[in-house]
Design a protein that fits this description.
Layout lengths: L6 H31 L6 H26 L2 H10 L4 H28 L2 H23 L5 H27 L5 H7 L2 H12 L1
Helix pairs in contact: 1-4, 1-5, 2-4, 3-4, 4-5, 5-6
Length: about 200
Amino acid sequence: MPEGITSRQYVLGFVFTLGAAALYGLVIPLIELTYKTTKSPVTYTLVMEMQVIVSISATVFCTVGMLVNGEFQALHSEAEGFRLGKINYCMDVLWGAVVGQFYFIGVFGVTFMASSLLSGVIIAVTLPGTEVLAVLLFHEKFSAEKGMSLVLALWGLASYLYGEYHSYLKLDPPNYMTEQQNKPEGAVHAHQSINDL
């Protein structure tokens, strides 16, 4: 247990961390459910509006929490203690927020175009991927935890791809003759001449 932390605080931190992970795990499938149950057509504009609403809600929630706990006063001391300087601290916070927004736009987009499962798989693979990049680019140590998270992420990706492959094999092959019979006569001849090439 870390120094200066009581066992009650440690247990609360553990429970809150698990709760946050479970809540985040529910967000993406609930967004997909929203897409599927909406009465109006789901367009790019609607996806972006949902992204804006989620981002504003999260910002308000975090800002209120920081105000209640007096965390804004700690930002100055954090910037002072940042070993690369105050300006780099501000740039780090700013670009972290910008990249985070692009990240969530990608999550919403993949959920919209494919599924929340694929979105979750991509997230699970990119997290240990960033650890590998930190090892390669910043020469961090490749610990056992990083190796285990990478193996689990790759296992999840392989399982997803294997499942998708088997789902693809169960699909009926397209019946080209039926499709050609439903086309106008000129389209059938054009299709046959393309196949003859």
